């Protein structure tokens, strides 16, 4: 470890406490859920502490983000997740599933790195989609090709670019 053990232990302890508290709140203190989540809390705390200390050691600095742009991105993501969830639920309850699945290739303007990974991850977390980065493009599987996917991906890309303060976004 290229960092002081005492500082690492303190940061790990702090993260363990915070993550345990968050898990306890999410599970409303149910004992079985706490036991189930304990290994995941430990792994998450350890990995996040390692990532933070490696970034400080110069092995991959964390990029600064624009706080207001991050809030806009969170709002955009939550709203589109809600819309996607409602859309998927409505499709599931219809007698005939109105599906027209497709793979959409979206040319990324974001530079390779954390911004493209974040965008791909956010797209994959939205209901009814799955994304992968392939040769500078974002390949997205959608449930219905007739949607406004290109405009939505463009808006998401602008939000992500603004978060990382990338010129032109």
UniProtKB/TrEMBL annotation:
The keyword Nucleus does not apply. GO terms for molecular function: monoatomic cation transmembrane transporter activity. It holds the Pfam family MNHE. The chain crosses the membrane at residues 7-26, 32-53, 65-93. Signal peptide: none annotated. GO terms for cellular component: plasma membrane. It comes from the Bacteria. It is a multi-pass membrane protein. Keywords: Cell membrane, Membrane, Transmembrane, Transmembrane helix. The keyword Transmembrane helix applies. It is found in: Cell membrane. This is Uncharacterized protein. It comes from Halochromatium salexigens.
């Amino acid at each position: 470890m290229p960092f002081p053990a005492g500082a690492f232990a303190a940061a790990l302890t702090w993260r363990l406490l915070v993550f345990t508290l968050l898990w306890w709140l999410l599970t409303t203190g149910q004992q079985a859920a706490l036991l189930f989540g304990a290994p995941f809390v430990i792994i998450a705390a350890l990995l996040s502490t390692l990532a933070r200390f490696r970034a400080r050691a110069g092995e991959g600095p964390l990029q600064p983000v624009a706080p207001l742009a991050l809030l806009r991105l969170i709002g955009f993501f939550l709203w589109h997740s809600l819309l996607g969830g409602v859309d998927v639920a409505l499709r599931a309850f219809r007698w005939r599933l109105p599906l027209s699945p497709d793979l959409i290739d979206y040319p990324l303007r974001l530079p390779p790195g954390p911004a493209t990974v974040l965008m791909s991850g956010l797209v994959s977390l939205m209901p009814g989609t799955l994304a992968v980065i392939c040769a500078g493009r974002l390949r997205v599987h959608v449930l219905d090709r007739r949607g406004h996917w290109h405009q939505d991906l463009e808006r998401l890309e602008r939000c992500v670019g603004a978060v990382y303060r990338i010129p032109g976004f």
